[in-house]
Amino acid sequence: MSKVDRIVQVTILRESKPISQAAFDMVLILGENFELEDDARYAVFSTDDLTALAAVLGSTPTEKPEYLAAEAIASQSPRPTQFAVGRVDSEDTDHKVALAAIMLENSNFFYVVCASRTQGDQEDTADWCNANRRIFISTSAGTDGDILDTVGNDDSSLAFYIKDGALDKACCIYHANAATDYIDAGLSSLLAVRRPGTYTPMFKTIVGSGVDSLNSTQQTNLFAKYCSSYESVGGQNILQEGWVGTGEFLDLIIWLEWLNSKIQTNVYSLLVNNEKVPFTSEGLGLLESAVQQVLEIEQAAKAISPEEFTGNVQTGGFFTSVPKISEVLQNDRLLRLAKDIKFTCWYNNPIHRVQINGIVKI
Fold first, then answer.
1. Hey, is 349 helix, strand or coil?
2. Domain segments of the chain as ranges
3. Is 234 left (phi over 0), alpha (psi -120 to 50) or beta?
4. How many Cα atoms are found within 13 Å in the side-chain-facing hemisphere of 31?
5. Quick one: which of 238, 226, 201, 230 has its CA closest to 213?
6. Model pTM?
7. pLDDT digits over 279-289, tens only?
């Protein structure tokens, strides 16, 4: 539990260690070939000049997977101005241990790209990200075609692993050239520069990545495992779907982390910038207002839908509530614990499919 978590706890149920706002636009490349100074685990490089990265990758640096991932990040438009690298030490027993060590040194990253294409390393990365509220976008060609098989015939692919574990911070993209095509880094780059809640990964074109040609059976099998694809549709190269392991969409999961961080930060700011927030109706109202401020900003950004009602039932927008001061338990007052501050909001879902019915009369 982080220090802020101890003071302000935010639980968002989707019917869904706080992340700093600066971390949401940072992609971390995780790899074994970095030779960072003083045995550092974390370093930041510019997307405008990859020569500094090449300098820490040993011999034939431009052939290293970490460099290929960085090239994919730098090739997108728009793209982040910077990206981070994290070093996997030879003494690390697995990628989870490496990520834990990197996190201790610097936690300023949100997206993780695993340079290794070994499935065990990717599974470890997926597990760690799921436990540490980071986003892991992965890619896999599977083995012996298993990823393209039906769910009943596939119990070993990366897509199966992510779905079977219901990993809601991990997204798998099928790509026949996953060994050398860092489409995962490219998509991470595209999402890192976008404001959470204002986009969908669906339809995104990833510069530098080739497309796959899948028949309808292969596509159906992939999609049944919540595995996305990158194909040419109507002459446009696009990502199809953008699921996580629970079948929810990546953009929603990212926005929920963003919303959690925003509310936590705003409420904490209220507490530390006042001499005290009194345990009165006024004080509870101030806490409610701090939550409302964030929700209003998200609604203005179109992450939360406009306020709508079906009859007397609210079906869009948001609402908040706090308990009456007379309903607060005496023990909670003694503990100085304000509870039952609640909100409900409606995510502004994007459209992925359209059905049109027409009649032509003569």
1. coil
2. 3-252, 274-345
3. left
4. 27
5. 230
6. 0.92
7. 999 999 999 99
